[in-house]
Amino acid sequence: MRDILTTRLGTRVMRREYGSLLPELVDQPFNDVTRLRVYAASVMAIMRWEPRVSVSRVQLHGATLQGQVVIDIEGRILDRNQALSMCLPLQLGGGA
């Protein structure tokens, strides 16, 4: 799932639709609108490219002045009925 979320749309040869909108949000201001877009981009990409997973929660944690956040994703691996928890560091807000 990390590969799905961090791959920019249009960059995968022969699978231009693969990936998510998260890389497009890197330089966006860190506000409520961007937070909502991060949630939506994460869930939409996982639903499309990883049908074996059902997402139940997406949260952002640890926002710093430099724009570093962590995306926490929780859900279930459907074929095993196993809990899933994943953390993905992300740079938002144009920080270096």
Number of domains: 1
Tell me the span between the first and last alpha carbons.
25 Å
Helix content: 10-25%
SS class: alpha+beta
**Number of helical runs?**
2
Number of strands: 3
Report the order of strands and helices: HHEEE
CATH fold naming: Nuclear Transport Factor 2, Chain: A
Q: Over the alpha carbons, how many angstroms does the gyration radius reach?
A: 13 Å
Strand percentage lies at 25-35%
Return the average pLDDT rounded to an integer: 88
CATH top level?
A: Alpha Beta
Low-confidence stretches: none
Major β-sheet profile: 3 strands, antiparallel
| CATH architecture term | Roll
Widest sheet, order of strands:
1-2-3
Shape: globular
Description:
- This protein has about 100 residues and is α+β, with helices and mostly antiparallel strands.
- The chain has a single domain, classed as Nuclear Transport Factor 2, Chain: A, CATH 3.10.450.40.
- It is about 25% helix and about 30% strand.
- It contains two helices and three strands.
- It has helices spanning about 1-5, 30-50, and strands spanning about 55-60, 70-75, 80-90.
- The longest helix has 18 residues, at about 30-50.
Characteristic key phrases:
96 residues; alpha+beta; Nuclear Transport Factor 2, Chain: A; three-stranded antiparallel sheet; 2 helices
